[in-house]
Amino acid sequence: MFSLFLPGDFAMQSDCDYKEPFHVAIIMDGNGRWATRRGLPRTAGHSAGVATVRRLIEAIPAMGVSTLTLFAFSSDNWRRPADEVGALMVLLRTYLRSEARRFIENDMRLSVIGRRDRLPAGLVRQIEEVEHATASGRRLHVRVALDYSSRDAILQAAVQLGSVDKPSREHFGKLVSKAREGDAASPEVDLLIRTGGEKRLSDFLLWESAYAELWFSEKMWPDFGTEDLQASIAEFRRRDRRFGGLSNVA
Ligand code: FPP
Predict the structure, then answer these.
(1) What is the pLDDT along the chain (250 residues), one digit of tens a residue?
(2) Which residue ranges have their beta carbon within 6 Å of ligand 1?
(3) Which residue numbers are catalytic?
(4) Which of 133, 138, 146, 163 is most buried when burial is the number of CB atoms within 10 A of its CB?
(5) DSSP symbols for the chain
């Protein structure tokens, strides 16, 4: 990307020169270890993780991001002890209830992707309320992945596809979105971030991340700050995205 650079404009330049709105997806890992290292119960790590979510959502629209997808609970997380799962469900419900007004005031939309049939009824009601109340938000679309498995979404899409003559990526991608995200199309992921020091995708947005740029942080999720997000986005902007073609720079 080429743009006129004036010395005093550095902060502006690094924050705002990516013209296309883009999609950031985050695997928020490390809550449990963050808490354990402090002698706290794992659930304290999840509560601290919610505070990180709040801080980042406040800062992220100014960074040019139009869609943010957060992996809050995977379909494999049901294997965790019942008290941790229960605490996470309560935390998520409380978050959705308390944030609705902030989302509306800031012209932001909140929706949930993933299965709903195994979630507590009260949480499902809260999801529906927030989705309805924030549906017209345009400044940022925050998608929370709950009871989400990308492989299940792909499998379901394959079943839906059946035996069509000429399957296309576009059509199949729509079926993948539909499988776990209602009717809304799931945009391609531009930047995929994982905190907590692990370097894996853990069944998150596998189809949508075919050409995602990957960024791994050693920080535990509660310690991940807006400056870390900014650093990942600055690096993302510097990367030469070729999509299998040839470099723009060359
Ligand atoms: C992974 O850390 C984190 C989760 C399974 C839950 C993520 C949930 C939140 C941050 C809270 C709520 C989210 C929203 C959108 C309000 P881990 O427990 O696997 O950590 P560990 O690897 O250190 O054990």
Answers:
(1) 333 332 333 333 344 444 688 999 999 999 999 999 999 999 999 999 999 999 999 999 999 999 999 999 999 999 999 999 999 999 999 999 999 999 999 999 999 999 999 999 999 999 999 999 999 999 999 999 999 999 999 999 999 888 777 888 888 888 888 877 665 677 899 999 999 999 999 999 999 999 999 999 999 999 999 999 999 999 999 998 888 888 766 5
(2) 28-33, 46, 49-50, 53, 70, 72, 77, 91-92, 95, 144, 196, 221
(3) 29, 77
(4) 146
(5) ------GGGHHHHHHH---S-EEEEEE---HHHHHHTTT--HHHHHHHHHHHHHHHHHHGGGGTEEEEEEEEEEGGGGGS-HHHHHHHHHHHHHHHHHHHHHHHHTTEEEEEES--TTS-HHHHHHHHHHHHHTTT--SEEEEEEEEE-HHHHHHHHHHHH-S-SS--HHHHHHHHHHHHHTTS--PPPSEEEE-TT----TTSSTTTTTT-EEEE-SS-GGG--HHHHHHHHHHHHHS---TTS--S--
Between the CA of 180 and the centroid of ligand 1 the distance, in Å, is 20
Q: Give, using CA atoms, the residue closest to atom 8 of ligand 1.
A: 72
CATH tag for 22-238 (out of 3.50.50.60, 3.40.1180.10, 3.40.718.10, 3.40.50.720):
3.40.1180.10
Q: Which of 27, 38, 46, 96 to mutate to test the pocket of ligand 1 (most atoms within 8 A of CB)?
A: 46
| Residue boundaries of the structural domains of the chain | 22-238
Pocket test of ligand 1: the residue of 24, 29, 97, 113 to mutate, having most ligand atoms within 8 Å of its CB, is 29
